[in-house]
Amino acid sequence: MGPPRPVVALALLAAAWLGAACSGDDDAGLDRQAGASTTVAPSTSTTSTGRPRGGAAVVAVWEEPDPAAPTLGGAAVRSLVLPQLYVAQPDGAWVPSLVEAGSEREAPDLGSVSFVLVRGAAWSDGSPITANDLRRSADPRFVAGVDGPDAAGRVTVRFTQRLPGWRRLWSGVDSVAPPAPGVWGGPFVVAGRTPGLEVVLRPNPEWHGAAPFLDEVRLQLVPDVTMALQLFERGEVDVVAPLPFPARIQQLAAVDGARVETGRASASGWWTGLLFQPGGLDGEDRRAVVASIDRRQFVGSLLKDEARVLDGFAGSRTWSSVGPGDPGALRDDVVDLVGMEEEPLTGLLQRSMQLRVRGVDARLELRNAEAHIVEGWVAAGEYEAAVVATFDSPTLCWLCRWGSIDEERARRADAGDAEAAAELETRLRDEALLLPLWRARPVVAWLAGLSGVEVNGYGLSPAWNAEQWWRE
User: Fold this and answer.
1) How far is CA 234 from CA 45, 237, 262, 382, in A?
2) Closest Cα partner for 114 from 162, 65, 159?
3) In this structure, which topology does domain 269-440 adopt according to CATH?
4) Strand pairing of 307-309 and 434-440?
5) What is the DSSP string of 280-328?
6) What is the 3-state secondary structure (H, E, C) of 320-354?
7) Bridge partner list, 223
8) Which residues of 223-259 are buried (b: 16+ CB within 10 A; e: fewer)?
9) Which of 4, 51, 253, 306 could staple 9 via S-S, CB 3.0–4.6 A?
């Protein structure tokens, strides 16, 4: 008979969760699950021999793959079609891509770094990728200036402050911006796009690394996990990496001809949390909303083996003591609670919260929408509380994430001040501005006949290394 379909499994678990108390704590044990792996992939500039060229692959992604959108879905495409200084590997290491390996020289005070750009790096129109491209697309929050190249070809990037995590600049969610529309600089170019459906990628003939083996990669929008698994079973998509849902790994592995690779939740940038708009609810109401959630019960019961409870960042356990409580401060209140339709368990979490606050005559009004819309609401502060799936690169950018709440501590944390990072997390917890919920275990599944696919919790999509894939 096989494992239950995702929609059936979710319905059954929802009934059990909402109707009765469950138990379980998956905070620490998930990373010890048998079979977990974190394969380190080679650099994007590594050459390979003996692999056939040709063929295509279809990759299911849950957010629209629009290369122009200021979203995680847009960043996933840009990471494949625009140059990046470094590429994050499954173990969290940054491997040089546009930077010549071994050429980095950090200033003793970490106020600047110099390096050599890969020789022969060019845009798809044949023009060279130079320091001018870095200057044009520098993040002014961190980059004071880009100098050079000098006679030895060295480019120097000066920072606005001490910045030990500088490798995330022009990397991960950020890329080097092109000199003109329709010009690309990654291993692929955008060959076509159907809004709301897919983007078509083909090899970039000017790419400085080993040319992609496949003739075409399609990133296809499949926001629903049930539909993604059905398409995968029918062979209409070759690669899937859905957000966590109950028995996700088991159901992917049950597909005929599927290969599944899993990583460790501790080596993943993907996490789901409850965010609060600082200018919205007062502190007492925010704490009451937090009190409506039992994270350990929810994750341990529904996401066993698929995610772990997230208690903090950069190795901290700041939220380890935060648990369910009395939501009485919300009596007679109405709270705007938004969420992403693509996140499989957001709706169930929201309904469990509604049940908790109903006893004090409070209401949580749900306002769910597509991920790119919710990302816009959160960025603009157009919400009171939001359950969102989000992403951090291996080098956490404190200012990017929480600078609007506490810029001084966030800058110090980015400068490597562990005390400032701890103080900032404590403030987020004590003022109930954030409740981390769970960190996803990385999973990718692909069909037989396609090779080179690797799981990467720091990849923005399962196609993070698609230039290394080939058809057997």
Assistant:
1) 34, 8, 22, 40
2) 159
3) Dipeptide-binding Protein; domain 3 (3.10.105)
4) antiparallel
5) SS-HHHHHHHHTT--HHHHHHHHSTTTEEE---STT--TTTT------G
6) CCCCCCCCHHHCCCEEEEEEECCCCCHHHHHHHHH
7) none
8) bbbbebbbbbbeeebbbbbbbbbbbbbebbbebeebe
9) 4
Residue 17 has pLDDT above 80, yes or no: no
Report the mean per-residue pLDDT for the chain.
91
The residues, any chain, with a CB within 8 Å of residue 419's CB and separated by 6 or more, are none
Query: Quick one: fold of 188-265+442-471?
Result: D-Maltodextrin-Binding Protein; domain 2 (3.40.190)
Q: Which amino acid is at 46?
A: T
* Domain extents in the chain: 85-178, 188-265+442-471, 269-440
Residue identified by tokens 């044949």 is 126
Are residues 361 and 347 in contact, defined by beta-carbon separation less than 8 angstroms? Answer: no
| Measured distance CA(446)–CA(403) in Å, rounded | 39
Contacts of 102 (CB under 8 A, 6+ apart): none
CB 234 within 8 A of CB 351: no
- Report DSSP state, residue 460: S
Q: Determine the 3-state secondary structure of 211 from DSSP.
A: coil
Q: Crossing angle of helices 72-81/371-380, nearest 10°?
A: 110
- Strands of the sheet containing 216-221, edge to edge, are 188-194, 198-203, 216-221, 56-61, 239-240, 443-447, 258-262
φ, ψ of residue 334 to 5 degrees: the values are: -125, 125
Report the pLDDT value the prediction gives residue 333, as an integer from 0 to 100: 95
CATH entry 3.90.76.10 includes domain 85-178: yes
Residue pair 385/377 in contact by the 8 Å Cβ criterion: no
Q: DSSP letter at 265?
A: G
Residue 44 has pLDDT above 90, yes or no: no
Residue 33: the pLDDT is 41
Cα–Cα distance, 453 to 259 (Å, whole number): 10
Ramachandran angles phi, psi of 166, nearest 5°: -65, -20
What gap in Å lies between CA 196 and CA 266, rounded to an integer? 33
Q: Hey, what are 426's tokens? A: 């404590």
Give the span between the Cα atoms of 201 and 221, in whole angstroms. 14
How much is the pTM?
0.90
Return the residue matching tokens 């994270």: 295
